[in-house]
Here is the input.
Amino acid sequence: CVIPFGRGNSRSVPEEEILRQIQKLVDNDFKEIVLTGVDLTSWGNDLLTTPKLGSLVNKILSKVPNLPRLRLSSIDSVEVDEELIEIIINEPRFMPHLHLSLQSGDNLILKRMKRRHSREQAIDFCQAIQRERPELTFGADIITGFPTETALMFKNSIELINECNLTWLHIFPFSARAGTPASRMPPVNGAEIKKRSHELRALGQIKVTKYLNTLLGKKHAVLIEGNGKGRTEAFAEVMVDPNIQAGIIKKLIAHNHNGSQLICS
Here is the structure.
């Protein structure tokens, strides 16, 4: 990946500043906060007391008790600390949705990507979390066609999607960037990369449709985003009456879906 060459060392926003910004947003009637950043689970490593992300999330929930919904952006599952795991499992104001930076389901490809986790660690994490909080959904980034990826290695990614019970897939076909180690590795044929990307996107559509089917006929807490759209706690996109006021959380029943969005009223 070329990104680390351009961004420099990670820098953590201090806890006090994060709390100040969140309280300001909540005071202005924002209903959901998403913590985001590059390599989010490394937050605190450069601060004096090296706090963990779990301690920050705990502070937010305790010091901003009028915040209804807290969500995380993309995280590295192998770096999730125990305090954060407890919150994910037990805290109702922590939204039951995690987006994971998985990239591949093959250990050799993960090693060549210099990822910090193995496929077994990813599977164990997802299965353990969903055993304790079954309503939680997972999204993930998956790269297809990374140099040296064989058909069997690609099959391992498909199996990972199933074993981790992933719902929201972000599929990226590999593209070489000059100056990176990957650009000097034996490439996968471009047509094959497109074929694998298409296969994973089709699987992703099956996963979303299957999940949306389980939500029909049930009542959901929907954060109304405006323009006739909203999100459930578990990140399903919802079509709603465009006249409903944006910025409120409303209990709605899912009557149908269009393959990618629930239709609620």
